[in-house]
Model the fold of this input.
Amino acid sequence: MSLLVKICGLRDKRHVAVAVEAGAAAVGFVFAESSRRVTPELARSISGAVPRSVKRVAVMLHPANDEWQHVLQQFEPDVLQTDAEDFDGLEIPASVECWPVYREGQSMPDVAGTWVYEGPKSGQGETVDWSAAARLARSRGMILAGGLGPENVADAIQRVRPSGVDVSSGVESAPGQKDSRLIKQFISAAKAAEKDL
Done:
């Protein structure tokens, strides 16, 4: 199984294209309160050229069902990523994959499928305990997030052995401002580390 690389918090068409061309398997658009927040309409317009092979991920946090339905109708994502407990109150069609987020320090159920592991707050650039993450990654399906960047993603992949990696602030020149060079470097470093697994 190949390593899934997700570039999150994208806000313009140019950086979406850079991520896709560099080999990202998923591109994330944030609909929660954040410097990276976009409207569903903007997310749809900047991701129109994304090939079907690349997953378009709606990233939310404790959304009400009507908020989620607006994102679903306007953006039509392939995946919904939000905290695990959020899914109970949402109506999600079978066509949309669910990626629950489990945060460091939470008790972990047995998780099937794809899931995201990160720190207490998203988008803060804080790494999780990689030793603890490595134990959890044995169950497969884990996308490791939190504090990753071009300089440490290879080390994280070798130590944790996740199924995927997710980056947002680590490929920015300033909060909310993606950097094409850092996006390319991150994906290149992740793909190189994957060969050693």
User: Anything to note?
Assistant: Strands lie at 4-7, 26-30, 55-59, 79-83, 97-103, 115-118, 142-144, 164-167, 172-174, 177-178.
